Amino acid sequence: MMDIHYQTWLPSAHLQPFIRELLLLDVTAAPGEVVPAKAMAANTEQCLVFYLRGQVTAVHPASGTTAVYAPTVLNGTQSARFDFYISARFRMLSVQFQPGVLAKFLRVPLPEFTNARIDAEAVLAAEIRQVQEQLVNAPTYAALGELVEAYLWRRIQRLRLDFQPFDRALRALAAQPQGYSLDQLAHDACLSVSQVERRFVQQLGVGPKLYGRISRFSQAHALKQVHPEWDWLHVAVACGYYDYQHLVKDFRQFGYATPPALLLAQAQAPDRLARPAR
């Protein structure tokens, strides 16, 4: 029988302005057992991901194209669905950054990271390979967290990352995408609308309107999972859609499926089948 451990946790307090969450997935399948695919719909997560055992093959269902990822990757905003197929023995650790922080952490603009998994070693050099090796050899899950936090804090201190009104406005948009206009965002960021649009592309890889749509789609998707008893019209209205068909349009674009079909596709994903964290 498949053994799956899935865990998310907050980083230490000094890292929380920069890192939103850490995520661990550890899968061991029995001989001949097939690990279900993960239907990963569009989302605004920006991550540093360590594949510590096994590998990931990503399939873009709209085109049928496939890709196998490097051992350590960086990803930006995802505006399309990808289906992830993992090895029978698989372990990954994902560092999920606060909105807009990855561009600061890398000191590079993010457009080329959109819908991509970039080899982290090409950007972060040999240091990230050393961190990967340490994580592969970590004796416990707790040690994984300690090692990756130590690396993150060393780099953040070297870079002297700072925050501006634009960064705070980003978090407000991510928290409430349906009630945030571009003019309000520009006001809160102390920038003009055109400056906000440029900053979005630089720090998030996509423009503010697309980012807001993906955020709203993700919010609707998450809300239905929290309240499965709600019908889809209730979810649509709660998230600022005009009606159910307006919601369906985004699900077809960002999830390549109707709302019920996307949830069904995700129901057997490894993280949904996981045993409780120990």
Automatic annotation (TrEMBL):
Gene3D superfamilies to which the protein is assigned, alphabetical: Homeodomain-like
PROSITE patterns associated with the record: HTH_ARAC_FAMILY_2
InterPro entries reported for this sequence: AraC_XylS_family_regulators, DUF6597, HTH_AraC
Keyword Transcription (UniProt): yes
Gene Ontology MF annotations: DNA-binding transcription factor activity; sequence-specific DNA binding
Residues forming coiled coils: none
Boundaries of every HTH araC/xylS-type domain copy: 167-265
Keywords: DNA-binding, Transcription, Transcription regulation
Protein name: AraC family transcriptional regulator
Record organism: Hymenobacter fodinae
